[in-house]
């Protein structure tokens, strides 16, 4: 398997001074940013800058873990994570066009240049084939679309040969960070493997550009359902106004907002952490104020591999069979329920 070529903007004039002063961070957590994504920076410490430019805070002791979701313990063979009974995550790449500073796999993304090797891929495929309960395979990484078309075709066709695998999903940030990677040729190849779903990762309205819209249009026109998973990040998207603009903008790209993630407690990312109360307030500020299609699930991916749990603002108080329900405008309305024991 092979990677595509990706133009990096590692040390241009604009960033050179800052990056030299951050060399200790970069030695610990690799730095990479595509030219496309770097061009979205409007000023130092804006939402795009914070997501892609190293910060000395990454080296502070934030009392978080390098693998808080226990992915290593849930990996029966290298490159594969089996947390839920009917689905697995297949890590086909350890590279991305941008190494996000809040990455859940910060501990190893960007280390080395090799994708999942032939022997490791065959071991992962053999594991999946041996477990008939596995119906859903999620390609992740790194970014799966960093593989060239031939290599990606090889992975997808190998999975389609396993009879009990009915759904394949791809998790990618490429439409945001390297939209030119999404070509008519790539989409023509992907559509051969339906049912195929793709979840991308927009975090801020400024990431919605003409090029990202074109990339998403190519994917949607190929019949690929598109979802989005955002991460709630301090100083990036932790306001109701920002999230309203983001989720409504995504619908215009034919992307259904799927998740807002409470940030995983990954070592080196503590400065991005928000309170759960902030996330609940954002969901409260979305429900009823924007199309229901634009309201994602707000979830915590619990530590130690316990899985995702949705969180909702408290909207109902029950006394006997009488419910007091709060509307999206804050009005309290009485609703008479039937006896739950009947």
From TrEMBL:
One Pfam short name: LAM_C
Coiled-coil regions listed: none
Boundaries of every Radical SAM core domain copy: 82-293
Source organism, top-level taxon: Bacteria
SUPFAM superfamilies assigned to the protein according to its UniProt record, in alphabetical order: Radical SAM enzymes (SSF102114)
Cofactors: [4Fe-4S] cluster; pyridoxal 5'-phosphate
The entry's keywords: 4Fe-4S, Iron, Iron-sulfur, Isomerase, Metal-binding, Pyridoxal phosphate, S-adenosyl-L-methionine
Signal peptide from the UniProt entry: none
Family, as annotated: Belongs to the radical SAM superfamily. KamA family.
UniProt-listed NCBIfam families: KamA family radical SAM protein
PANTHER family: L-LYSINE 2,3-AMINOMUTASE, LYSINE 2,3-AMINOMUTASE-RELATED
Full protein name: KamA family radical SAM protein
Organism annotation: Pelotalea chapellei
UniProt lineage: Bacteria, Pseudomonadati, Thermodesulfobacteriota, Desulfuromonadia, Geobacterales
């Amino acid at each position: 398997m092979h990677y595509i070529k990706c133009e990096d903007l590692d040390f241009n004039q604009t960033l050179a001074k800052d990056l030299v002063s951050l060399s200790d961070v970069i030695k610990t957590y690799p730095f990479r940013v595509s030219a496309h994504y770097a061009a979205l920076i409007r000023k130092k410490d804006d939402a795009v800058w914070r997501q892609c430019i190293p910060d000395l805070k990454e080296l502070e002791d934030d009392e978080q873990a390098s693998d808080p979701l226990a992915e290593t313990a849930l990996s029966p063979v290298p490159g594969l994570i089996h947390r839920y009974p009917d689905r697995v995550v297949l890590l086909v790449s350890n590279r991305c066009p941008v190494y996000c500073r809040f990455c859940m796999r910060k501990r190893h993304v960007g280390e080395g240049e090799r994708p999942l090797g032939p022997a490791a891929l065959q071991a992962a495929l053999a594991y999946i084939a041996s477990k008939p309960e596995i119906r859903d395979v999620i390609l992740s990484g790194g970014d799966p679309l960093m593989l060239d078309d031939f290599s990606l075709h090889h992975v997808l066709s190998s999975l389609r040969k396993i009879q009990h695998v009915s759904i394949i999903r791809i998790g990618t940030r490429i439409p945001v960070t390297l939209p030119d990677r999404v070509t008519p040729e790539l989409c023509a190849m992907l559509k051969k493997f339906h049912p195929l779903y793709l979840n991308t990762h927009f975090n801020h309205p400024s990431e919605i550009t003409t090029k990202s819209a074109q990339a998403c249009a190519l994917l949607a026109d190929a019949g690929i359902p598109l979802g989005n998973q955002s991460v709630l990040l301090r100083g990036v998207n932790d306001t109701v106004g920002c999230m309203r603009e983001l989720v409504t903008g995504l619908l215009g790209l034919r992307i259904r907002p799927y998740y807002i993630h409470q940030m995983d407690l990954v070592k080196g990312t503590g400065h991005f952490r928000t309170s759960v109360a902030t996330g609940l307030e954002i969901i409260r500020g979305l429900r009823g104020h924007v199309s229901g299609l634009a309201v994602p699930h707000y979830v915590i991916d619990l530590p130690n591999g316990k899985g995702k749990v949705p969180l909702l603002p408290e909207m109902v108080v029950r006394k006997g069979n009488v419910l007091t329900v709060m509307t999206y405008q804050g009005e309290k309305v009485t609703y008479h329920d039937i006896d739950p024991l009947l």
